[in-house]
Design a protein that fits this description.
Layout lengths: L5 H11 L6 H16 L2 E6 L5 H14 L4 E5 L2 H23 L5 E3 L9 H6 L11 H10 L4 H21 L14 H5 L21 H11 L2 E5 H9 L10 E4 L5 H8 L2 E3 L1 H11 L5 H20 L10 H21 L8 H22 L4 E8 L3 E8 L3 H9 L3 E6 L9 H6 L23 E7 L4 H4 E5 L13 H14 L3 E4 L3 H14 L5 E3 L5 H10 L4 E4 L16 E4 L10 H12 L4 H18 L10 E5 L3 H4 L3 H5 L6 E3 L2 H11 L4
Parallel strand pairs: 1-9, 1-10, 2-4, 2-5, 3-4, 5-9, 11-16, 11-17, 12-14, 12-15, 13-14, 15-16
Antiparallel strand pairs: 6-8, 7-8
Helix pairs in contact: 1-3, 1-4, 2-3, 3-4, 6-7, 10-11, 12-13, 12-15, 13-14, 14-15, 19-20, 19-26, 22-23
């Protein structure tokens, strides 16, 4: 008797949802199943509406039922929760019906997403006991307009009580399940990775929530994690994730950015001062003073530095890094003296200093594989940052070499080709298998293939791409008056119902202010005026409202229907020309004989344009306009490359045509 297949599991899942077969979803499931079987890495682009989660979950169910563990890594914690709470249960029900088994699954996050019992318990002195619960105190403090310290204290007490309740209920004390709190409050009940004592040394190691989460992951057939933890696992010898045979990376267009973030580190005077104060109780006066003085040396060097990449010519900065490295080494030695093993505070302070030492040493080394640069923060001034020049080597050697990997997203093809994204994650163009070729015919060590299963949407019929060629090219002076007038005319024609994606907060605010003056009858919300979830709720609830914002609105926003009949993009989203990391990556490509602009800046812009324009059509009944106010999308040589990265909307540069189309969409003509 033939064994049940992924096709049957997929059909059962779709039937359970009351849906119909989607050609692209079936093609994706077939490609994923083949990749799992052959061991060839796969890049699969599945457009919006394909149902890509079930497209890879159906083959996963079959492999899990056969005893193989699969890890799914997605971009954010929110997407992890969506998979675990919505998509996977549907696939599990289908697997149960078809395969007669129900694989187990678990979510695994980074350490700081779980409460730390050492912080929870040892941070509460006996005199903080109260007749009121922490939740009641926090609610009362907020309602009474108490000072920040009082609200913080009540929130911390509330979180500590919640963590104990979680322990009693055998739950994981996951931050996403916690009562409402501020980031500062959470930092009082959680612990950074480097400051954890470890289960063997911690007095509460046997009850540790992180250890419990990892134990559940080790027992699970399917583990859902995120890109950052995948990177940490790769960087630290596969200690974060359980052993697995197969890996699916969802939202893979964000992988390079997320891995870069996980592999980066910052260094600031405030950080040095904070850690020095934690450690100084166990240090001699001389060592403590030297430690604090190193923060002043760093501050002075940062103030005199350019907001640019650090080179061997920046002697003052390099001296500050070296001095901090040497002082940290001395402090580590002092903290590791007698009695340290019995003092948890001393151990944690030592771990914090060790991290400081590691970062300072990495920055002082100016490794060719790193980019060290200076950045400016809004509230806290300057800091030094170190980031990897690229993540391709890490991914190739520590991820692709150990597992069969499927990368999927709605946007993996840039300029109509997969090679740019493949190269950025460690897959080489010459290793790509031609269609129909088997792995045995390919001698390269990391063979891969790619497929675009399309989208169920008819973009040319459902949407218009309008490029405003008559406008002046964008300048560094900000959004032009002509562009502001164009925004006002387009939003008027649409009757609101517009998502505005801007290259900067200043441009978004300028456009919002202009529309409020020109179109007072229409409501325009602007990112930064309230919490983003609140703004999104208002935008969805009222079709006449428009929402303007920046980078966090370019992807992950799903607003089907008449609420969003227009997406306005003010300029091509190239990286900032003064971004030291992007500059260094472009130079590296050029020095290797490639085109740095196309490989880095244009590829980044293409992915962002694909994501941003993808906000328009979310259902097969959606209609609308993507308006790009940057004429370079049509006039520049790279314009066709960027347009090939976007959905295949009907293209026009005629302003009147677009205005009439928008008026018809809202029934005004």
């Amino acid at each position: 008797m033939a064994q049940p297949t992924h096709s049957e599991v997929l059909a059962a899942a779709v039937s359970q949802l009351g849906g119909a077969e989607r050609t692209g979803q079936v093609a994706m499931a077939d490609a994923v199943a083949e990749a799992f079987e052959s061991g060839v890495h796969l890049m699969v682009q599945a457009g919006t509406g394909t149902g890509k989660s079930l497209g890879y979950l159906a083959p996963i169910m079959v492999r899990s039922a056969a005893g193989e563990r699969v890890v799914i890594a997605t971009a954010t914690l929110a997407l992890q929760a969506q998979l675990a709470n919505t998509d996977i249960p549907v696939a599990l029900d289908a697997a149960d019906a078809v395969l007669g088994t129900r694989p187990s699954h678990a979510i695994l996050k980074g350490r700081s997403n779980y409460a730390c019992l050492l912080r929870v318990r040892d941070g509460v002195p006996d005199d903080q006991q109260t007749l009121l619960s922490g939740e009641e105190l926090a609610r009362t403090a907020r309602r009474a307009g108490a000072d920040e310290a009082s609200v913080l204290g009540s929130e911390v007490l509330m979180l500590r009580e919640w963590a104990e309740d979680q322990l009693a209920a055998a739950e994981l004390s996951d931050r996403d399940d916690a009562p409402t709190h501020t980031p500062r409050a959470w930092s009082q009940v959680s612990v950074p990775v480097r400051e954890c004592l470890g289960a063997q040394r911690c007095p509460y190691g046997q009850e540790c929530f992180v250890e419990l989460s990892r134990e559940r992951a080790r027992r699970a057939d399917i583990v859902v994690t995120n890109h950052a933890l995948l990177a940490i696992d790769a960087m630290h010898g596969h200690t974060a994730l359980p052993e697995h045979e197969l890996l699916v990376i969802d939202e893979a267009h964000e992988l390079v950015s997320r891995v870069t973030g996980a592999a980066s580190a910052e260094l600031s005077p405030q950080m040095v001062e904070r850690i020095a104060r934690r450690a100084m109780g166990w240090l001699s006066d001389e060592t403590a003073l030297e430690f604090l003085e190193s923060a002043d040396v760093l501050r002075t060097a940062l103030d005199h530095a350019a907001l640019a990449q650090v080179t061997s010519q920046d002697e003052m900065l390099l001296h500050a890094f070296q001095q901090l490295r040497d002082v940290s080494r001395s402090v580590i030695s002092a903290l590791s003296g007698g009695g340290a093993s019995k003092d948890n505070g001393r151990l944690q302070a030592g771990s914090a200093v060790q991290e400081l030492f590691d970062v300072a040493e990495r920055m002082a080394a100016l490794s060719p594989g790193d980019v060290v640069y200076i950045s400016e923060r809004d509230r806290f001034g300057r800091q030094a940052v170190v980031s990897p020049l690229g993540v391709a080597g890490l991914m190739r050697d520590r991820v692709f070499a150990d597992n069969t990997v499927v990368l999927t997203s709605a946007t993996l093809s840039v300029g109509g080709q997969f090679e740019a994204v493949a190269r950025s994650v460690g897959l080489r163009a010459e290793e790509r298998l031609p269609d129909g070729e088997t792995p045995s015919e390919q001698k390269d060590p990391q063979p891969w293939c790619a497929v675009d299963v399309g989208s169920p949407f008819d973009y040319a019929r459902q949407g218009i791409l309008y490029v405003a060629e008559h406008l002046p090219p964008p300048s560094r002076e900000g959004i032009s008056q002509a562009a502001l007038d164009e925004v006002a005319q387009l939003v008027w024609a649409a009757g609101g119902r517009t998502l505005g994606l801007f290259a900067s907060q200043r441009a978004a605010e300028a456009a919002a202010a202009h529309l409020r003056a020109e179109l007072p009858s229409l409501t325009v919300l602007c990112q930064g005026e309230a919490q983003l979830p609140d703004l999104m709720r208002r935008f969805v609830a009222d079709e006449s409202i428009s929402l303007f914002g920046t980078i966090s609105l370019w992807q992950g926003v799903d607003v089907p229907g008449d609420t969003c009949t227009q997406v306005i993009i003010d300029k091509i989203p190239f990286p900032r020309p003064d971004d030291p990391l992007m500059q260094a990556r472009q130079r590296a490509v050029a020095e290797a004989g490639g085109n740095g602009f196309m490989a880095v800046a244009a590829t980044h812009a293409g992915l962002m344009l694909a994501q941003g324009s993808g906000r328009l059509i979310r259902r097969d009944t959606d209609r609308g306009v993507v308006a790009v106010l940057d004429p370079r999308l049509s006039t520049a040589r790279y314009g066709s490359f960027l347009r090939a990265s976007m959905p295949s909307f009907w293209l026009t540069n005629n302003h009147d045509t677009v205005v009439q189309s928008l008026l018809r969409l809202r029934g005004a003509v």
